[in-house]
Each structure stands twice: as C-alpha cells, then as structure tokens.
Amino acid sequence: MYKIQTLNKISPDGLALFPRDSYEIASEILNPEAILVRSAEMHELELPKSVKAIARAGAGVNNIPVAKCTEQGIVVFNTPGANANAVKELVIGALIFSSRPVHKAASWAKGLAGKGDEIPELAEKGKSQFVGPEIKGKTLGIIGLGAIGAMVANDAVALGMNVIGFDPFISVDAAWSLSRAVHKAESLDALLAKSDYISIHVPQTNDTKGFINADKLRIMKKGVRILNFARGGLVNNADMIQAVKDGKVACHVTDFADEAMLDCEGVVCLPHLGASTPEAEENCAYMAVNQLIDFLENGNIVNSVNFPKCKIDGCIPEKGARLCIANKNVPNMIGQITSILAGAKLNIASMTNQNRADVAYNLIDVEDRVSENVLANLRDIDGVIGVRMIPGGNACPVPVEEE
Ligand SMILES: NC(=O)C1=CN([C@@H]2O[C@H](COP(=O)(O)OP(=O)(O)OC[C@H]3O[C@@H](n4cnc5c(N)ncnc54)[C@H](O)[C@@H]3O)[C@@H](O)[C@H]2O)C=CC1
Ligand SMILES: O=C(O)CCC(=O)C(=O)O
C-alpha cells in the first residue's frame, strides 16, 4: 500500500486516479511515501524519511524546500502549463479592469440602492468617475514568457496591444508558441521604460525576489498599470504603495493580498485566484497524480524541478526488479553501482542514467530480485543519496504528459 499525504484540497477527480486497492490518501497519515501539495508552505515542515516524492499540483514551487529535498533524494514534481489558461484569462480580465475600474463602479452603483426612479439619472451623472483608457494600441510589457506569459502575450496581440517581452531563459517551445507580433525587449529596463501595462510571470527565486522595487518603478512611465499574478514576494510592497500614492502607478493588481496593500487606494488585491477554475484544478491534479503513480510504481521521472527527466518505457522484468538510484553527480558512481550488481551476479536487462546539476538518477532493470544485502551495499556507496527497488510483475508504465 502506498501512502499519500495531501497538504491542500486537491481535485477529487484527480485523486480518483489513484487505484484504491494500492493507495491510501489522507491529509494526516504516518510515514507517507509521497506528498501532494498546492500552495501550502512547506519550508518549516519536518519531512519524514519515508517521503520519496512531492508533487506540486501547480507551477510555482517556492513553497517547497527544493534544495533540502534534493539533498534528501526527494524528487519534486510540478505540473507545467496545467493551470496556465486559467491564469491567462484572469490576467486579461485584470488588464481591462486595471484600466476600466468596473469593480469600483459596481460597488458604487450598489450604493444607489433605495433611490428608485432617480437611479438612471444618478448613474449617468456619476459614471464619469470611472472613465479609463482602452487597452487597444497600448504597450504591454510581459516579464517572463513561459506557459502563462506566452499565452497572455498572444491574446493581448489579438486585443490590439503592442506586446514586448523579456525572458533571458525562454524555452524553445515557448518561443515557438509566440505570435510573431510579440517583440523582444533588449533588457528589463527597456521593457519597463516603454510599457503602459506590465504583467509579471516569473517564478519567485532568490534572483527575482523583490525585483520590482523603487529603482525599477522609477524607470517606468507615469500612469503605468502593473499586474502581478506570479508571486507577492516579487514586488517590494512598500515601494509599490509609495509609487501608487505618488501617482506613478495608476493601478496595481496583485493576486497576493497583503495587509498594507489592502488599504491602498489604487491597488486591487485578489485572494490568489489565478488558478482557481475547475478545469485548472483538475488538469493540475491529473498531471500531479499520474506523475506520482509513474514514479512510485515504475521509478520514472517526468516534470521534476530538481531531478533529471529519466524513464524506461518498458515493463519491469516480471521475475526481476527495477533499481532507482539517486546519487551525487560525481565520477565513478555507475562503475561502483554496476560492480556491486556484477558481484551479486545480477544481469542488467536495461539501464539509463541522467544527470542535472548536482544530482544523477539511474534506472536499472535486473533479471532477478535484489537482496536486502545488495541494496544495503548500494546505499553504502559514498555519494549515493537514495536506493529503491521496485519488484517486477506489476502493471506497465502509465503514459505521463510531458512538459
Ligand atoms: N496566481 C496563480 O494562481 C498562479 C501563479 N503562478 C506563478 O506564475 C509563475 C509563472 O508560471 P508559468 O508561466 O506557468 O511558469 P513557466 O516556468 O512556464 O514560466 C516562467 C518563465 O519565467 C522565465 N524567467 C525566469 N526568471 C526570469 C527572469 N529573471 N526574468 C525574466 N524571465 C524569467 C523563465 O525563463 C520562464 O520562461 C509561476 O512560477 C508561479 O509563481 C503560476 C500559476 C498560477
Ligand atoms: O493552487 C493554486 O491555486 C495556486 C496555483 C499557483 O500559484 C501555481 O501554480 O503556482
């Protein structure tokens, strides 16, 4: 029985993919093999030794102690692109309501309650306070052209905006998906200086934390509208509030509510709603669950943020086993591993080794079961981070959607 701990509410349709006869799923469970999480903060959490994988049903992994997981041989997965459309749709909405304050207008109109026949006239008189510019023909600068940024860029082009983007690490797939009308900004500062609207779509890392600060705000046009549907920590809130008060920023829409921001006229705070659609929640849960099943039952790794992609498509030899070995990415690991297997007279049927930064991962199919003694010898190799044996005779790998 595999034990899966859920730290957030995960779409029930996704959880239903776990076969009930071999998986136990609960929010509180002793010694889970894997954890399913959305935005729950995990940095201060003690991770039991039993945990082999964490799947983030979503894109951002800044709530997960990824480096610590890598050291402990815990594979961290996310679900690239699975909620991108949901975020994109809300960003397009925010582009419009950052210009045309329909949220304010709607609550003002509610205040006319009880005025009866006077309402049409009062409405006509009052509407001028909610005038705002059209987005057509304006320049939108997008920082980060990944799954979400690229979709926002293309739809903004369709709405008649001039779109410029900045992403020094853009993937080939994202670049191919972009409309030819999207132009590359020469630098972040050039994008900030030219844009009437700015939308942020980068992950929160040590490099990007607080990068929208007073220095960057100074470069921007007066009256700029800034949307942040990526992470609250990317923006220096005190600097942003000052810029809104000074009239430098006409509107700031953030998906990350914060005490100081809530009080500031000109800031619209949303309660982290970007991915809150049934479609996105299901897509993320399906992808995360399928990835976990494929990892736990077959050792395969797809869409990890800390381990290399590594998979064997075929079944584990029926009478044999698959060894899943994580090790430091240093010389002579494969030599040491294979000599232990040779010493135990274990014939290798197939093998793959991939590395990423400081870690490497091996999948080795052998034609006989592997004794506890051999597993202990493999674990004792200096540089080995984790060893797992999956006996053959189970179902073949389920196909998993790739990035
Ligand atoms: N509000 C919400 O509910 C959601 C928020 N997010 C946030 O949005 C972020 C982006 O999501 P996706 O587009 O799906 O991720 P992604 O990984 O597809 O795209 C991120 C892009 O940012 C680029 N990038 C990284 N560092 C950069 C830098 N310093 N300057 C410019 N570009 C940089 C990368 O090259 C990549 O193309 C996530 O990391 C997450 O924090 C994601 C989904 C839902
Ligand atoms: O699960 C959620 O609602 C948040 C999604 C998110 O922020 C992400 O995917 O990075």
Automatic annotation (TrEMBL):
Keyword Zinc set for record: no
**Any one Pfam family match given in the protein's UniProt record, by short name:** 2-Hacid_dh
* UniProt EC number: 1.1.1.399, 1.1.1.95
What's its catalytic activity?
Answer: (R)-2-hydroxyglutarate + NAD(+) = 2-oxoglutarate + NADH + H(+); (2R)-3-phosphoglycerate + NAD(+) = 3-phosphooxypyruvate + NADH + H(+)
Write the record's keywords in alphabetical order, separated by commas.
NAD, Oxidoreductase
Q: Which GO terms describe its molecular function?
A: NAD binding; phosphoglycerate dehydrogenase activity
Q: Which CDD domains match?
A: ACT_3PGDH, PGDH_like_3
State which pathway it belongs to: Amino-acid biosynthesis; L-serine biosynthesis; L-serine from 3-phospho-D-glycerate: step 1/3
Q: Where is the ACT domain?
A: 322-392
PANTHER family linked: FORMATE DEHYDROGENASE 1 (PTHR42938), HYDROXYPYRUVATE REDUCTASE (PTHR42938:SF47)
What does the record give as the function of this protein? Answer: Catalyzes the reversible oxidation of 3-phospho-D-glycerate to 3-phosphonooxypyruvate, the first step of the phosphorylated L-serine biosynthesis pathway. Also catalyzes the reversible oxidation of 2-hydroxyglutarate to 2-oxoglutarate.
Instruction: Name the family.
Output: Belongs to the D-isomer specific 2-hydroxyacid dehydrogenase family.
Q: What is this protein called?
A: D-3-phosphoglycerate dehydrogenase
Question: Which source organism does the UniProt entry give?
Answer: Teretinema zuelzerae
